[in-house]
Amino acid sequence: MMKSLSLQFKLNLIITLLLLGLLLTWAVSVVKNAREDVLAEVDSSTNLVIHLLDAEIAHYMTDFGWLNHSENGQTNLFRLDELTNIRHLKVDFFDMNGRLRESNRSTRLVPTGEEPPAWFVRLLDISSVLNEPKRKNIILNGRFIGELVITPDPSFELREIWDDTSGLLAIVGLFGLSVLLFVYWTVRATFKPVKQIIHGLNQIERGEYQSRLPGFEQIELSEISDKFNSMASTLEQSIRNNHRLTQQIIHLQEEERKKLARDLHDEIGQYLTAVHVDASALVAAKKLSVARESAQAIAQITRQMMVTIQDILARLRPRVLDELGLSLALAELIHHWHDRNRGIMVVNAISNHLSQHDESVSVTIYRILQECLTNISKHAAATRVTIEVTESEQGLYLLVEDDGRGFDTSVQSRGYGLAGMQERVEGLMGSMNITSAPGQGTRIEVRFHTTEGFQEAVT
User: Fold this and answer.
1) Average pLDDT value for residue range 311-316
2) Is the pLDDT of residue 234 over 70?
3) Residues 180-192 pLDDT 10s
4) Phi-psi region of 111 (alpha: psi -120 to 50; beta: other; left: phi over 0)
5) What pLDDT is stored for residue 113 in this prediction?
6) CA dihedral 271, 273, 277, 278 (to 10 degrees)
7) Which of 8, 205, 277, 455 has the fewest Cβ atoms nearer than 10 Å?
8) What 3-state class would DSSP assign to 184?
9) Residue 193's closest CA among 165, 223, 173, 170?
10) Residue 330 has pLDDT above 60, yes or no
């Protein structure tokens, strides 16, 4: 159930329950202290009255003149009417016949203040005090005179306590309500940016990668906003690069097709035309020497056609990978490149024991090295090139480093080369790192993980 509730509602609920718990604890403490105060007040008043009455009794034990007057009803024995200011006790004196002779409540005292509610009186639980009046028999010289009955009357104290408590309760309730409203407003204002974040995520989900979040005042949400905007910018740039690369790939494919068509038309077509002419001459020849010359021309043209076709096939797919394996194919590629670039020293550190990897990985390694060597010969103006291809338990590693003019990696290249290599490596779950700076050469590192990783990437 709690999982389906929003965090904002949970926080408001927790704070509300906490305030209610504090209020309940305070109420229990107030009730406990009020009960103790009532009992202490009643007990104190009772002891005081008993001491006063004992003093009166001790006085009358030495003076018996009051007895006759008391029997005729002319004298108030204990002068209880003078104790009307004792509000918490009702003191009555009954004679030997059970008649009420004196009382401190001869005139009714009306408590001031609001009548406490019944539930408040029940919470105080002072019923045991009200039901336990203290009785004292008055016996002088062995003669039973009467009985004093002291009955607790906490109504005055209850009204005072209720007046104080109800006022304090109103203040606490108003304070608690104010706190709840403040917390609700604060939590709502704090979580308001969450809706903006969700809206931004929804825009990204719909493909609106230009969506950005505003800066928030809260430090935590401000960090989220910065990370979101950085992510959106990176994603937008990546999508833009993918579109650009896709267009370049399509353009390169069309260019390659045009080149193949041109080679087939210009070279293969020319060779076929020559073969056709020589074959026609061979058919029409009347002399053996003329036929022999036409046949030799056809043989020569056929050999040239085979070389041309092999060059075209090599551009389409490096056949040497199938024939020689990755190590020898890379070595042959470096050898032919070095023949065309004698002014550049090549440090070759290719392992001779490279495993038979997945075809996509082998072709990618070959094409990356081919592209790197082409870029070095065209743009780097380098004098030294280091090439390293090794294999370990972690996977396959390729390093191409030159001491040429380098370039600024923060400036986006318009060409397909480096970006295309990066996409190709990442598509096979590999990693590619390019380190370069103007005048400091270029270092390109490519890592592919284990064969299992290759298979997962391909499938």
Assistant:
1) 70
2) yes
3) 888 888 777 777 7
4) beta
5) 57
6) 20
7) 205
8) helix
9) 223
10) yes
Taking CA atoms, 73 is separated from 67, 101, 221, in Å, by: 10, 8, 90
| Strand, coil or helix: 10 | helix
Confidence bin at 450 (pLDDT 50/70/90): low
Q: Are the C-beta atoms of residues 366 and 329 closer than 8 Å to each other?
A: yes
Q: Are strands 442-448 and 431-436 parallel, antiparallel or unpaired?
A: antiparallel
Q: What is the C-alpha separation between 165 and 249, in angstroms, rounded?
A: 83
- CA distance linking residue 168 with residue 176, whole number of Å: 12
Residue 261 CB-density burial (10 A; 0-12 exposed, 13-18 middle, 19+ buried) = exposed
Confidence of residue 118 (pLDDT cuts 50, 70, 90): confident
> Rounded to an integer, what distance in angstroms lies between the CA atom of residue 145 and that of residue 136?
11
* Amino acid residing at 3: K
* Among 408, 366, 400, residue whose Cα is nearest residue 382: 400
Confidence of residue 453 (pLDDT cuts 50, 70, 90): very low
Q: Which two tokens stand for residue 109?
A: 């005292």
Selection from 96-100, 169-173, 276-280, 341-345 with the highest mean pLDDT: 341-345
- As a whole number of angstroms, the distance between CA 387 and CA 378 comes to 17
Q: Give the model confidence (pLDDT) of 65-96 as tens digits.
A: 545 544 544 456 666 766 666 666 777 778 78
Identify which of 6-10, 153-157, 264-268 has the greatest average pLDDT. 264-268
Distance CA 335, CA 404 (A): 20
The amino acid that residue 320 corresponds to is: V
| Three-state DSSP state, 238 | helix
User: What are 276-303's pLDDT values in tens digits?
Assistant: 787 887 787 777 777 788 788 888 888 8
Residues across the chain:
459
**Residue at 374: amino acid letter:** T
Which of these, 76, 81, 84, 64, lies nearest to 101 by C-alpha position? 76
Segment 346-367, tens digit of pLDDT = 998 888 878 777 778 888 888 8
CA gap 147, 98 in Å, rounded:
8
* Helices and strands in the chain, H and E counts: 13, 9
Cα 225 → chain centroid: 13
End-to-end CA distance of the chain: 42
CB 270 within 8 A of CB 296: no
H helix intervals, 206-268: 219-263
In the structure encoding, which two tokens stand for residue 88, read together? 């918490």
Whole-angstrom distance, CA of residue 59 vs CA of residue 119:
46
| Residues 418-446 as b or e (16 or more Cβ within 10 Å = b) | bbbbbbbbeebbbebeeebeeeebbebeb
